[in-house]
């Protein structure tokens, strides 16, 4: 009897397993630990994970245009000539503010010239400026006297008869007399100027430059106007560090090399005297 019951139970279990195997498996399998994360859970990145955010590149900065007055030379003398002059020898001689080539460009019909003068009126009692055409015919001749203090001085052409023509060359001479006699030998500097046309591109740049005309002139190789514009600004703003630095950069730029003059004072205009007309060539 007992045996028949065990056989019947075995048959029942086999039948259940055959018809519903998952039920039997659920009863016999252990319940696993629920270690999976909820779909809504957020995981924090590891502290060792590098930040892969791409670095934002800065746009390239515009580079300032270089100033370079290197070129071919013309006959001249930008440092005080006249070995027989009674003017005393100085550590820095009379010097014309020109490139080493002894010439420069201007867009002005009546340009302004700048010089370093190491003398006072007590030492150099008078001077003379002469402008000639390319064949050394006089166009403008004027006497002048110096300011009271040595330093940078300017001289502007005042005569409409000496108006420079575009694309033509002109020769100038700046002379100082130190002797008591009017016929004494002068110490002098001399060089050339060429007037060039004001192109539409240059005119546009000048309109956009406001108070920085000297930067436009210098980057376009227009020497006399770069010097005149910056010198005028320095005269009106003697303590402006930026203008002083730009002045030093202009005087020491390639093709100029006036390093010894960067710290000399700005003085101003010479005093022009009545013009004496003459058609004679320059004599020293």
Brief summary:
With 284 residues, this protein is an alpha+beta fold.
Description of the molecule:
Strands 1, 3, 5, 6, 8, 9 and 11 form a seven-stranded mixed sheet that branches. A four-stranded mixed sheet has the order 2-4-7-10, covered by helices on one side. The chain is of the alpha+beta class. Helices cover 24% and strands 22% of the residues. The radius of gyration is 44 Å and the shape is globular. The chain has helices at residues 2-19, 21-28, 200-209, 213-219, 223-236, 241-251, and strands at residues 77-81, 95-96, 103-106, 112-117, 126-133, 138-145, 151-156, 169-177, 187-195, 266-269, 271-272. Strand 5 (126-133) and strand 6 form a beta hairpin.
Question: What labels describe this entry?
Answer:
6 helices, seven-stranded mixed β-sheet, 11 strands, Immunoglobulin-like, 22% strand, four-stranded mixed β-sheet, single chain, 284 residues, alpha+beta
Q: What structural class do helix, strand and pairing data support?
A: alpha+beta
What is the tally of helical segments?
6
Shape category = globular
Average of the residue pLDDT scores: 82
Tally of DSSP β-strands: 11
Quote the beta fraction: 15-25%
CATH structural architecture of the domain at 90-272: Sandwich
CATH superfamily of the domain at 90-272: Immunoglobulins
Percentage of residues in helical conformation = 10-25%
Uncertain segments: 14-47, 278-284
Which fold name is given in CATH as the topology of the domain at 90-272? Immunoglobulin-like
Straight-line distance between termini: 156 Å
* H and E order: HHEEEEEEEEEHHHHEE
- Biggest sheet, open or closed, and with what strands and sense? 7 strands, mixed
User: What is the CATH first-level class name of the domain at 90-272?
Assistant: Mainly Beta
From the alpha-carbon coordinates, what is the Rg to the nearest angstrom? 44 Å
